[in-house]
Specification:
129 residues, mainly alpha, 88% helix, flat, cell membrane
């Protein structure tokens, strides 16, 4: 895998861990923390990070393909990632030991980390320069 891409994946993964710690602290403060919520958060986070890594692999492979093959490959991988997400949400709804809200928070964690990096951290760096 390309070094810059791997660095970005590592950055987001570390950011997701920090995000989860903040989420746990907020859950403790609001008294909504439970074992089910923690399991849901962990489950959703693991799937989100794996989906993010799959996306990176898909992008890296599709760049080297001809346009028509890249479109088919990308669409297939997208369908696979969304199916995995759907199965995870279905399992979280059906399983009494996993809180669906915790899973949803975990699944959205890479999105929040990327948005935070884009809108807060990068803007602060620009002001300093």
């Amino acid at each position: 895998m390309h070094t810059k891409l791997q660095d970005e994946i590592n950055y987001v993964t570390k950011g997701v861990i920090v995000y989860d710690l903040i989420a746990i602290i907020l859950l403790l403060i609001t008294s909504t923390f439970s074992k089910e919520m923690l399991l849901g958060l962990i489950f959703g986070t693991i799937i989100a990070v794996l989906n993010f890594r799959l996306l990176a692999i898909t992008i890296e492979k599709s760049v080297t393909m001809p346009v028509s093959k890249a479109q088919i490959y990308s669409a297939g991988q997208y369908l696979l990632r969304m199916t995995v997400t759907g199965v995870v949400l279905f399992v979280s709804v059906k399983a009494p030991y996993i809180h669906v809200l915790g899973v949803a928070i975990g699944l959205l964690s890479p999105k929040f980390v990327i948005l935070t990096k884009t809108f807060l951290i990068d803007k602060l760096k620009r002001k300093e320069a």
